[in-house]
Amino acid sequence: MGEAFSPTAADGDLARARDGDEAAFTRLVRPLRPELHAHCYRMLGSVHDADDALQDALLRAWRGLARFEGRSSLRTWLYAVTTHACLDLAESRGRRMLPMDLGPSSERAVVDGQGPLGDVAWLGPYPDAGPTDGPAGRYERREAVELAFVAALQHLPGNQRAALLLFEVLGFSAAEIAAMMKTSSASVNSALARARRILAEKAPSLDRQRAPRTIGDPRVREIAVGFASALERGDADALIALLTDDVTWSMPPLPHWYRGIAAVADFAVQVPLTRCPSWRYVLTGANGQPAVAFYVGEGAALPHAAWSITVLTLRDERICEIASFLGAEHFAGFGLPAVLPAVRTTGDGGR
């Protein structure tokens, strides 16, 4: 994978940074921050943990820059520093989970059951790449942060997770990874083999085809709008018509989740379509997939508060997985407000 910055400019900033020029160091690492942050998210399954890990990694890099001898590229060295920062954080905070990791699905809607579980480290959504990324960068990030892929990664021990990501996603060789991880190429290859077996068990149907899935694709946008507007209108039939027979719906931090059209339909009718007075929405993108930011209010013309970032997984132009990440804390990372103001007319859904 090519360097993300001009070698000549980078060499000059590297020399200045080694002399203690913090502004030069900032310029040096700025082009690499988005991909390093995405790597942290894949390793840790949380935007907030990714923020912490990257901040720690860049501090380590700044303090240890004098030890960078140039035997590898600066990018490779920064990935090594960042990966170790992620491994340290993962060890202290544990792996991120989805409701599916806690127990079997519920056959009927749980209306007055157990509330949010605050003692579980939940997987979180990841905002899509911004408009400044080129087409190749958007595709690469989309494939590498898909929700099912990141969820499956959380089942791997840290060293296997790191080896798999560095090799399969980032294209480093086994020898380069061995140098990064301070181990042997044989150990890296063994970790890769074990990681691939576990990943195949945890996500046997993981779709890696290059099919259109982003909110910018017209058909995908049409499906996302159909789902969101059906919820907004309270149209159960229209919503259910968009789902596959084996659809799942989960809502971390709630432990309950649903599998199959009957269970999901029962939940949809009993809870969001009945117990929530008014919905508005904003289309967005998360984990390289279509997503909807939902807001709930007491009436159509009243203010609506942030409720969930709902990530949709599609198969054959239907929705096969719905993951609603509840909580206003997710919205800032998507550049979305915590409240949609009151409106005089209805029906625009905040679009």
From TrEMBL:
Domain (RNA polymerase sigma-70 region): residue spans on this chain: 28-95
Keywords recorded for this protein, A-Z: Sigma factor, Transcription, Transcription regulation
The protein's assembly and partners: Interacts transiently with the RNA polymerase catalytic core formed by RpoA, RpoB, RpoC and RpoZ (2 alpha, 1 beta, 1 beta' and 1 omega subunit) to form the RNA polymerase holoenzyme that can initiate transcription.
Pfam families recorded: Sigma70_r2, Sigma70_r4_2, SnoaL_2
Keyword flag Transcription: yes
Family designation: Belongs to the sigma-70 factor family. ECF subfamily.
Record InterPro entries: NTF2-like_dom_sf (IPR032710), RNA_pol_sigma-70-like (IPR039425), RNA_pol_sigma-70_dom (IPR014284), RNA_pol_sigma-G_actinobac (IPR014305), RNA_pol_sigma70_r2 (IPR007627), RNA_pol_sigma70_r4_t2 (IPR013249), RNA_pol_sigma_r2 (IPR013325), RNA_pol_sigma_r3/r4-like (IPR013324)
Annotated RNA polymerase sigma factor 70 region 4 type domain residues: 148-197
Superkingdom of origin: Bacteria
Gene: rpoE_4
SnoaL-like domain mapped to chain residues: 227-321
Protein name as annotated: RNA polymerase sigma factor
Keyword ATP-binding carried by entry: no
